[in-house]
# Entry
Amino acid sequence: EIKENDISDIIEELRMELLESDVSLEVTDKILEDLKTNLIGNKVSRSEDLEQLIKKSLKKSLNEILQYNKIDSNLVDNIKKSPKPFIIVFFGVNGVGKTTTIAKFVYLLKKNGLNVIIAAADTFRAAAQEQLAVHAKKLEVPLVKGKYGGDPASVAYDAIQSAKSRGIDVVLIDTAGRMNTDKDLTEELKRIIRIAKPNFRILVLDSLAGNDALEQARYFEDAVGYDAVILTKVDADAKGGIVLSLAYELKKPVIYLGIGQDYENLISFDPSWFLDRLFS
Amino acid sequence: MLDNIKDAVRKFLSGSSSYEQAVDEFIKDLQKALISSDVNVKLVFSLSNKIKERLKKEKPPSSLERREWFIKIVYDELSSLFGGDKQPDVVPDKIPYVIMLVGVQGSGKTTTAGKLAYFYKKKGFKVALVGADVYRPAALDQLIQLGDLIKVPVYGEQGNYDAVGIAKRGVEKFLSEKYEIIIVDTAGRHGYGEETKLLEEMKNIYDALKPDEVTLVIDASIGQKAFDLASRFNQASKVGSIIITKMDGTAKGGGALSAVAATGAIIKFIGTGEKIEELEVFNPRRFVARILGM
Ligand SMILES: Nc1nc2c(ncn2[C@@H]2O[C@H](COP(=O)(O)OP(=O)(O)OP(=O)(O)O)[C@@H](O)[C@H]2O)c(=O)[nH]1
Ligand SMILES: Nc1nc2c(ncn2[C@@H]2O[C@H](COP(=O)(O)OP(=O)(O)OP(=O)(O)O)[C@@H](O)[C@H]2O)c(=O)[nH]1
Ligand SMILES: [K+]
Ligand SMILES: [Mg+2]
Ligand SMILES: [Mg+2]
# Structure
């Protein structure tokens, strides 16, 4: 029979591993509490290695939690089935990878036979327009640009009108990075969403971020809400503990991971892939 | 969550438990606060052990002054990481002075290059910018737009992919034109896996320029990876200073503390917004307060 004392060393070791993977303190505590309750009092046959048993049990419960990260249906299939144009808006704090992710998304959608238009609704950051223009040219898709200092919502609106008149399947709206402390920019985002009426909202998070990622996720959920998260820069050897925190605290799906700067570096999220990484 | 350092101090002072027990309790709360602020977990333990030793060895003064004494020890130990309580000297000790900015993708290098140029220009220096990011689409346009805004010349070669050559030619050109501070913007990189060659490229730029200062630009929101990342950068090209960006957000910036521990570099500036003037000289006291949630 397993007693608290038998497992405390291993629990502390796991605590370190989870914390070092950027899983938040609260979530780490909850996960390990659950694990303890599950284990204590259980009988373990002598042959079975306690440490192995504990790790197996943890993986199993994490895998259950991570099911919250799965989305019910494939987004691309969803788009194919939906009335056109299908409108997606991307947002998040500064520099997480929104614009690059949009370019990767164009590549993915085109591969699936869909045609796309991009709305460059970041009219603020230096060369935000030019950055998307380079991508649009390379990917051979139309781009609706805005003037610096201009109204981003009207850029989104123009792109949607253009999609309607040209029979384009998908509109991808790029927005300026905005901090979760900026009230004006939050209002601006709300306005873009009110006018564009997107079918799908994506929050982009940086996998290198620590505890603040959950803060961002909570903020954008309260401010505008979103359907799914895309996690970028996973190739930077980041463990991305935010995935667990998202599942545990917000029950939000993660649909794709950015794993590099090239167009094909966008992969579907898979809980078991994430778990293997966490324990690698 | 981080208000609990204050609570911890209060608990500690009002507690009926023994002094030893009270210290242990406090240390636990301190560790939690630091970990929640994204300070590297191992660093948290080594720091808190030191603090614990001091708390147990040194005698607390009369109960009246205890609170100040207590906080002071925590402050002391944290700020000794930055080489003390004083603000950094940001005026270059020689002219001309070449600064090379490095960092992870999206950390804020290009924006910070513009901010630094503006900061030194206002101080009366003759400043120039060199754009050596040949990968990110429109990276050079971004730097040129910032340069135009503050009327600082920008060197770059559109369509050329030789970052080392561009950096070298840019710096040489501005040196020959008697510019005093030359700031070189480089591409974002992390250097893991497929990106090892990008780290080599950075080293090659460093070897070609022999800059007076390599500045690591680090996002306030970075988590546990900060320590290892900063070590890698430091190995490829010795990091002399750190700038923490996006301090206007809710992130505490503990990752930057890890980067300091990993490199021995000093923090010189913080970025507090997207605008060109939103750069402040680093203030150790305020930063420690933020990390502790006080
Ligand atoms: N290694 C790596 N780099 C990425 C990934 N996704 C984006 N990046 C890089 O991160 C940097 C910032 O990306 P952007 O797409 O400009 O980010 P953004 O969120 O649009 O930035 P703002 O619009 O300024 O807020 C660029 O250098 C990208 O190449 C990824 O999955 N892996
Ligand atoms: N809120 C805020 N945003 C910042 C700050 N510094 C930079 N940014 C923003 O962060 C984003 C990324 O900045 P860049 O300067 O493009 O970052 P970078 O490191 O040059 O990116 P790469 O060249 O792609 O690696 C932009 O949206 C900037 O406006 C800051 O201090 N506060
Ligand atoms: K970031
Ligand atoms: Mg962008
Ligand atoms: Mg840049």
Notes: Chain A is about 50% helix and 15% strand. Residues 146 and 163 of chain A are 16 Å apart (CA to CA). The interface with chain B takes residues 16, 19-22, 24-25, 93-97, 124-127, 130-131, 133-135, 177, 179-182, 206, 208-213, 215-216, 219, 233, 235-239, 241, 260-261 of chain A (CB under 8 Å).
